[in-house]
């Protein structure tokens, strides 16, 4: 197994991780920004007011994109397993 193959697998893993975390992180970012804006306008600084909506939005984002996330992980894993013979040099 040569270093370029290791770097390629690492790059694919990082790209897959970024794609899978994007829906949850973007949802939390948007909801957090909106709640911060509302708190700033109303001058209501309550910790639970920022945490609960974010947690609910993240759960909804996971429920909506969960099937896609699992499908992406299965595809990545199958591709990795399919590359094992070529990485070992037997193919």
From TrEMBL:
Keywords: Bacterial flagellum, Cell membrane, Cell projection, Cilium, Flagellum, Membrane, Transmembrane, Transmembrane helix. It is a multi-pass membrane protein. The keyword Transmembrane helix applies. It comes from the Bacteria. The chain crosses the membrane at residues 20-39, 51-70. Pfam families: Bac_export_3. The keyword Transferase does not apply. Its main location: membrane. It is found in: Cell membrane; Bacterial flagellum basal body. Belongs to the FliQ/MopD/SpaQ family. Role in flagellar biosynthesis. This is Flagellar biosynthetic protein FliQ. It comes from Terrabacter aeriphilus. The gene is fliQ.
């Amino acid at each position: 197994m040569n270093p370029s193959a290791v770097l390629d697998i690492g790059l694919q893993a990082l790209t897959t991780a970024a794609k899978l975390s994007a829906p949850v992180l973007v949802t939390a970012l948007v909801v957090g920004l909106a709640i911060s804006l509302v708190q700033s306008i109303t001058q209501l600084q309550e910790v639970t007011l920022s945490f609960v909506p974010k947690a609910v939005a993240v759960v909804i984002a996971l429920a909506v994109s969960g099937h896609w996330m699992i499908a992406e992980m299965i595809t990545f894993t199958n591709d990795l397993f399919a590359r094992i013979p070529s990485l070992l040099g037997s193919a």
